[in-house]
Amino acid sequence: MHSVDIASCNDSLFDGCISVGTVNLSNHDLGLGRLRVELIGAFPDSFEDAANVAATCAFNAFKDGMPTRPDAIHENVVSLYVRSTALPHVLLADPFLWQDGPNTLQESDLTIAWLMIVPISDNERRFARANGSAALTSLLEHQRVDILDLNRKSAV
């Protein structure tokens, strides 16, 4: 049986934002060798299911063996909690929102890295599949997309 704890912190990046993250996902071998991961995400504090999105991504890795590594996409995670969302999927990316962390950790013979949960649209998912997730991340950064806006328009 697998379990994962979720931590949340209001106003961590700025007022009106909630940050959520897995606490012990790195205790589980997800098939990445000595690399283990934790997930972190930032959402508007009005989004009551932020912790559920993080937990769903973690359980996707356990239950379905979904890739949980940089540039992986977990489909239909946000849409489990917001039925009519333009951003139903999640991209796992390097955590670029936090300037001073979270930092990669060394623990005995394991490396623990953080992956940021980024809600994405169907068109963005298709773009990532065709061009690579790194190209999508670059596009989001180039367009200065507000990834905290769950009502934003697709960058593609």
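Next protein, fold it too.
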Amino acid sequence: MALRALLVALVALALAGAALAAGSKSTLRITYWPHGRSQSATIWTLGCGPAAGTHPARIRTCAQLKAHPADLRPATRACTIMPTRTSPQAAIQGTWAGRPVNRSYRIGCPGWSDLRLVLTGRS
């Protein structure tokens, strides 16, 4: 009986830990250069869990990030599109679901389409 109680307690602790990890706060800094890095940038903050910060579409942006978490991980393939001096670019830094994020994006490269609202503030 004591063994069963111990097992139940261990399972409950494991589930609680998983729930905390899944619901952990995420804090990101998004930098968007609409006309390339040689021009001025717009910088937003974004918190998810709950949605907060200066990003103009916080709730929809948090939903988009939740739907595409792989786009916050380091890129798995190189972008073959060469940027021009005025190509839109963006960067995300911070923490998402307890993991560090430090990734750059360019229009036409992996992650840009999935995270367009996150990166540009516009759908």
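About the second fold: DSSP finds three helices and five strands in the chain.
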